[in-house]
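Give me C-alpha cells for this 291-residue protein.
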Amino acid sequence: MGTQRGGLMFVSAALVCLFAVPSLHAQTPPAESEIPLQRCDRLPVAIVEVNKTEKRFLVDTAATSMLNQKSFRSGRSTDVRVQSWNKTTSLSAREVVLNELSLGDHHLQNLKLPAIDLSAIAKACGGPIDGILGVDLLEQLGVTIDLQRSVARLGVPPPNSSELSLIADMERSMKECSDAFNDADAVGLAFCFDRDFVLSLPEAEYRGRDQAANYFREQYFNMRPHVHMSMTMNDQRVVGDIVWSSYDYTLESAAFHFAGRGMMLCRKSENRWYILSMHESPITSTAIPKH
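Here you go.
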C-alpha cells in the first residue's frame, strides 16, 4: 500500500482547489505578527490608525472601547452603558462613527463608539490618549496582549470580500480539473498543474507537471471502481494571486480507507488557476479484508 497511498494522497491534494470555499504569505502559511506597545502607568498603549490617522489608545481588556471626545468632535449625543473592571455604568456620551480602525494589518470598518472626556487619563499618562481599546474591539481584531513582553499579537485576519471573491473565482476555474479527475483524464488534469509543480509525499517527491501527471496516470487512473474522496477545509489565506490551503481528507475504495492532512498552494496566471505545490502527511490507513 505504500506506493498506492502516495498516489491517492496526490489525488486528494489535486482536488483540494476544486472544492474549497473559504487566503498566504509568499509560499508559507501566514504567521502571527507582533506590534510593540507603549506604556501609561501599568496599562499598555497601542498605536492604531483611525481613518488613516495615527491615534494612541489605552488597552484595557476589562473595559468597553470608547473614544476621547476631545480627539473626536463629531457625532450625536446618546445614552450608553460603559463597562469597567468592576462595574457597568450608564452615562450620556456622544456616538461617533469611524469609517475604519486598524491595528497592524487588521481592519474594522463602520464602527460606532461612544466618546467621553478622557482628558484626566491623558494627563495622568503625560501624553495624548485618543481612546480606549477594550475587550470588544480586541476580540473583533483578533488581538491578544502579552503584558510581560509588552506586545500585541495579531492573529491571521479572516478573508475579506475581495479575497473571498478571488477564492470563488478559483473554484469556478478549477471545475475543469474536477471533471478531468472524474473522467480519468490525465492530460486534462495535467493542465491543472503549474509547469514547476511539486508534489511532496512521505515516501517520494515529484517535480514538474509531466512527471506528476505520468505518475498519476500509471498508478491510479486504471483503478476500478474509482476512489471516493471527501475533504474538510481548515484554513485558506490569500496573498496577491495565490491561495494557500490546509485541509483534512479521506479516501475510500472497496479495498481501503485512508485519511490524511495536507497543505497546498494555487496561483492564478493568465486568467487560469494552477496548482503550485502540495505537501501531505498520512494519519490513518486501513486495508479492507476481501470476502
